[in-house]
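Example record for the data management plan.
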Amino acid sequence: MTDAPASLRPDARLVRLHAERGDPQARLSGALAALEGADWGLLLRDHAALAHQLAAQLGRGTLRVDPRLRVNRDALADAGLAAAPWTPTGAAHAPCG
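Corresponding structural encoding:
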């Protein structure tokens, strides 16, 4: 577990929030407040651009994704990523996508 880096962009912090120390509710609350207060936005042209951005930030591998979200598995695969269903317990229950 790590402490919240002060210089990390709000969106980048949100991706790594699970590894921070402290109370989960407080971490999430603080991260969302920072995200809401951000004076920037990010628009990507398509699913492939999002997949490549995720791969650049996180590296290749498997992403845990809420099963309620639709993901473009082909775009993720082209970027060296895969999607696996995420549940609060971390167990895979339902197919994703």
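Summary line stored alongside the record: Residues 11 and 45 are 18 Å apart (CA to CA).
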